[in-house]
Amino acid sequence: MATDKQVEYVLSLQEQCNSTEYSKAEVRKMNNEEVNDIIEEFKTDMAIEELYNECMSYGLPNQ
Hints:
Blueprint: H1 4-16, H2 24-29, H3 32-57
Helix pairs in contact: 1-3
């Protein structure tokens, strides 16, 4: 079972990613490995979005 801190952290990351994939009850039932996988997934999504936004801030080529 996930700890309170893990649940809150996952829900916080989920909110930052504008996702509603997991409910508090679902996260609570997850084991430590599942929670870590989800945290890494959200962090990866956020990093990709940040890189995309940075690239787009320079504009598209030939414009």
